[in-house]
From TrEMBL:
Residues 1-109 are annotated as: RU A. It catalyses: barbiturate + H2O = 3-oxo-3-ureidopropanoate. GO terms for biological process: uracil catabolic process. This is Barbiturase. The monomer structure is formed from three repeating units (RUs) that share the same structure as one another. The monomer and the active site possess nearly threefold rotational symmetry, to the extent that the active site possesses three potential Ser-Lys catalytic dyads, but one of the 3 active site surfaces varies in composition suggesting it is involved in confering substrate specificity. Pathway: Pyrimidine metabolism; uracil degradation via oxidative pathway; malonate and urea from uracil: step 2/3. The lineage of its organism: Bacteria, Bacillati, Actinomycetota, Actinomycetes, Nakamurellales. The keyword Magnesium applies. Mg(2+) binds at residues 307, 356, 359-361, 364. It comes from Nakamurella sp. A5-74. GO terms for molecular function: barbiturase activity; metal ion binding. Residues 259-383 are annotated as: RU C. Responsible for the hydrolysis of barbituric acid (2,4,6-trihydroxy-1,3-pyrimidine), an intermediate in the oxidative catabolism of pyrimidines. Catalyzes the hydrolytic opening of the pyrimidine ring of barbituric acid to yield ureidomalonic acid. The record marks 330 as: Important for substrate specificity. Inhibited by cyanuric acid.
Length: 383
C-alpha cells in the first residue's frame, strides 16, 4: 500500500453535495480541478438519502459511485480502491442534505507549514467479525485493536489528540443469523433492526477501551450500562462488510496543513451549545452568543450521533417517539437533531447519524467539528 495511504501526511478535506444517490460528480470535479488527487483520497464519510435501515441500499449505490470515480481518475488497482474506508450513513430525515466529506493527503511541500496541531487521519480494518461476536467482548477487543492501529497510522500517540472515530461494522441479517445457527452458535438478537443499535453500541465500547476512556467492559454491560461511553465515537453499521472499518481523525503537531478538529458532546437532543463547544474546541474564535454567520466559511463540517433518551423525555417534557408505531424513533430523533444542527451551522449538509448507544451521554451524543485555518477558507458555507 502506498505511503499516501499509510504514512501521516497533511490533509485536505472538502464537503460536497450529492445531487442524486448515484452521484459522485462533485468528487470528480475536485480531482479535475486539481484540488485533490484521486490516488491520495484516503477516506470518505457521507450521508445518503435512503431509509437508514437494514435494507438501505443507497449506501451501496453511493459507495460504488465514489469508488468508480477514484478508480477511473487514479492509478490504484480495484483491490486497493476497495480498501479505502468509505462510510455512508443512510437517512437524511428532515432538512439533512445528502453529502460527502472527502479526506485526502497532500504533498508536504505544498501544504501550509506550521508546528501547530493540524488534522491527521488514519484508518484500519479489524479482523473479521463473526455474527455470534456482535454484541460481545470479542467484538470490543477486535475493534479496540483496529482503533490502536488507525491511531498509529495517523501518527497519534496521545489519545487526547483523537477527536473523532468513525466506524462501520456489520449488523445481523437473516443470512448471518442462519450462518451462526448452522455452526451451532447463538446470536445476541434475532431482530435485525435492533442489531444496528447493538453493533454500534458494542463498537463504541471498543473505541472507548482503545482510547482509555473506560476499562474493558463485560458482556453484561453492552447496551445496559449506558454510563460507559466514548465521547468521540461515531459508529454506523450495515450490510456492506464483515469487519470493523475504522477511521481515526485527530490532530498532530508538525504535520502541517490548514485544518483542525475538535469535539464535545450534546447532553440532550436540543443542546446546541454542545455543537458550538466542538467548533470552539477545534480552534475557531467565536463570540459569547454565536450565530452561523460568525463561521464565515471556516466550518468544513460537523459530525454527530444522536439517540432518544430512554425515559421518553427531553428537559422534563414528555415525547412520544419511543411509543410511535408508525415512524421509528431512529428517524424522528435524527430529524430533530439534524434541524438543531443545521440551525447552528446555517447549512443543512451536516452529518447527523442515529443509534448512539454508548456514544456520548444518555439522550445526547458526541459532536466533532473540522475547521479551516487557512488564509482563505475553503469551506462550503450555506448558499
Amino acid at each position: 500500500m502506498s505511503d499516501a495511504l499509510t504514512a501521516p501526511q497533511p490533509i485536505e478535506v472538502r464537503k460536497v453535495p450529492l445531487h442524486s444517490v448515484s452521484d459522485a460528480s462533485e468528487l470528480a470535479k475536485l480531482i479535475d480541478d486539481g484540488i485533490l488527487e484521486a490516488d491520495r483520497v484516503i477516506a470518505v464519510i457521507g450521508k445518503t438519502e435512503g431509509n437508514g435501515g437494514v435494507n438501505d441500499y443507497t449506501r451501496i449505490i453511493a459507495d460504488r459511485a465514489f469508488r468508480e470515480v477514484i478508480a477511473a481518475k487514479g492509478t490504484r488497482s480495484a483491490d486497493e480502491v476497495k480498501q479505502i474506508p468509505i462510510v455512508w450513513s443512510g437517512g437524511t430525515d428532515g432538512v439533512i442534505s445528502p453529502h460527502a466529506t472527502i479526506f485526502a493527503t497532500v504533498p508536504v511541500d505544498v501544504a501550509l507549514q506550521t508546528d501547530e496541531p493540524r488534522l491527521t487521519v488514519g484508518f484500519a480494518m479489524s479482523e473479521p467479525l463473526l455474527p455470534e461476536e456482535i454484541g460481545y467482548t470479542p467484538m470490543i477487543s477486535k475493534v479496540a485493536a483496529a482503533v490502536t492501529e488507525a491511531m498509529a497510522r495517523a501518527g497519534i500517540t496521545d489519545p487526547a489528540d483523537v477527536h473523532y472515530v468513525q466506524t462501520k461494522t456489520p449488523l445481523l441479517t437473516i443470512h448471518t443469523i442462519r450462518d451462526a445457527k448452522s455452526r451451532g452458535k447463538s446470536v445476541w438478537t434475532e431482530h435485525t433492526h435492533e442489531s444496528m443499535d447493538l453493533s454500534n453500541g458494542c463498537t463504541a465500547l471498543g473505541v472507548a477501551v482503545a482510547l482509555g476512556e473506560i476499562e474493558m467492559p463485560t458482556d453484561a454491560d453492552v447496551m445496559h450500562n449506558r454510563g460507559l461511553f466514548s465521547s468521540v465515537a461515531s459508529c454506523s453499521s450495515g450490510v456492506e462488510l464483515d469487519q470493523a472499518q475504522v477511521v481515526v481523525v485527530g490532530n498532530a503537531r508538525g504535520i502541517g496543513g490548514r485544518y483542525r478538529i475538535g469535539h464535545s458532546v450534546m447532553n440532550d437532543a436540543l443542546d446546541a451549545d454542545g455543537i458550538w463547544s466542538a467548533i470552539k474546541d477545534a480552534g475557531l474564535e467565536l463570540p459569547d452568543r454565536p450565530h452561523h454567520s460568525d463561521l464565515k466559511g471556516r466550518l468544513v463540517n460537523v459530525f454527530l450521533k444522536c439517540e432518544v433518551s430512554r425515559d421518553g423525555e427531553v428537559r422534563g417534557r414528555r415525547n412520544a417517539m419511543l411509543d410511535d408505531s408508525d415512524v421509528h424513533w431512529h428517524r424522528q430523533i435524527k430529524s430533530c437533531v439534524g434541524g438543531v444542527t443545521a440551525a447552528v451551522t446555517g447549512d443543512p449538509a451536516v452529518f447527523v447519524s442515529v443509534s448512539a448507544a454508548h456514544q456520548g451521554p444518555e439522550g445526547g451524543g458526541p459532536v466533532a467539528a473540522i475547521i479551516d485555518l487557512g488564509d482563505e477558507p475553503s469551506g462550503y458555507p450555506a448558499p
